[in-house]
Amino acid sequence: MIESFYDLKHVPFCRDISADQLYLPMMVEEVLERLYYAAQRQLFAVVTGDCGTGKTTAIRRLENTLDQARFKLMYLADSNLTPRHFYKGLLEQLGCEAKFYRGDAKRQLHREIELMRGIHHLQPVVVVDEAHLLDKEMLEEVRFLLNFRMDSQSPMALILVGQSELRDKFKLQAYAAIRQRIDLQCRLAHYDRSQVEEYIKRHLVYAGAEHDIFSDGAIEMIYSYSSGAARMVNKVCTHCLIYGAQNGRRIIDDHMVKLVIEGEML
Q: If you average pLDDT over residues 230-237, what whole number do you get?
C-alpha cells in the first residue's frame, strides 16, 4: 500500500534495511570507529544508550564492516543469559557441542579460540546484546573469561551492548573490578532535530522517493514526539505513511502527524 501510493521501491522505515544503507550521524560513526579498534586490538568495550537509540543497528553496521577473512563475529542476545548458556551459545556458533560443566565449557572455548586464531587466523569478536539485563554472576564470569594467560592476553574482543542502566550499574562499587577492565566506553544519544530530518530523508531516498513526503512541520512534530529515538521515528513515520496512503495525501503535514500520534500511538 505504501509503496504503490508513494511510488516507492522499498518500505522506508523497516528494520531489515541493508546495513550499508543505514543513516549514520557523526556520533554513530565515531562509535563504529571505536568498536572496530576494539575488534582489532581484542579489547573489552561497552556500548550504552537509551531504548531506541540504534545500539543494535550500530552492531549490524559493525558486522558489515568487519572483514570476514580476519574476524569471526559471534552474537548473543538473551535476557536470562547464564555462564553455562554463554559458553554454550558461543561454542555452538563455532560448530561445537558444549561440555556440560561451566569450567569444562570455558576451557573448551579457550581451546577452540586458540585453534581459530592459530589455524584460520581469525580474531573472535563477541557481542552480547541486552547486557543491562545480565546479573552480577554473569558479569563476573565475563571478567574471569578475559583473564587469560595470567592476564597477559585477551582471548577475544568483547562488546557489551545495553541500555543506559548498564552504565549506571558499572558505576557501583560492587562492579569496580569489572569496570576497571573496560577498555572503551561508548554512549549513543538521541538524534537532534537536524539528524531526525536527515534520517527521514535518507530512508526515503533508500526507498526510492523522488521528492519530499514529510513537510518541515511534520518533521518538527515527529522529532518532538520521538525525542530523537530512531525506533520511535520509524514507528510514527510508518503510521503516517499508511494514513496518508489510505487518505490520498501525497504530502504529510504536521496536522496529519498530530492525528496519527493522538489516534494510533500508544
A: 94
